[in-house]
Specification:
There is one protein chain. The protein is an alpha+beta fold. About 30% of the residues lie in helices and about 30% in strands. Strand 1 and strand 2 form a beta hairpin. The longest helix is centred in the N-terminal third of the chain and has 12 residues.
C-alpha cells in the first residue's frame, strides 16, 4: 500500500469515532514506517476529530509503527499496550495522553 492508501484507510476507520464527550485538546502524530511510510496526525478539538496528512508540532505524543500494526490496533486485534511492550509500537511524548487515544479507537 502507498502512504495515500494507508492514510485514506485510517481516515475511513476513524470517521465514526465519537469524540463529542472529549473536552480537552488531544493531538497525536503517527509516523508510519516501512511500506507506505509517511506522517499524519489525529487531533481532537472542541469535540471534533480531525485527521490530516501533515506533521503536527504541538502534539501530545508520537506513535511510530508499521501500517499493519496500526490497522491491527484499530481493529482491536492487537492491544496497543501489548504492541508497545513487544516493540511493535514506539511512543514518544506523554504516555498518559497517548493512552487516551484508546478511548475512541
Amino acid at each position: 500500500m502507498t502512504f495515500s492508501e494507508n492514510f485514506n484507510k485510517v481516515r475511513d476507520l476513524f470517521k465514526d469515532a465519537d469524540v463529542s464527550d472529549v473536552k480537552e485538546h488531544l493531538a497525536y502524530q503517527f509516523n508510519i514506517t516501512g511500506e507506505g511510510e509517511g506522517i499524519f496526525y489525529v487531533e481532537v478539538k472542541d469535540g471534533e476529530l480531525h485527521i490530516e496528512p501533515y506533521e503536527y508540532y504541538d502534539r501530545d505524543a508520537i506513535f511510530i509503527c508499521k501500517a499493519d500494526t496500526l490497522f491491527k490496533i484499530i481493529a482491536k486485534k492487537l492491544d496497543p499496550v501489548v504492541a508497545f511492550t513487544i516493540g511493535k509500537l514506539k511512543v514518544e511524548g506523554s504516555i498518559e495522553q497517548a493512552l487516551k487515544l484508546k478511548n475512541f479507537l
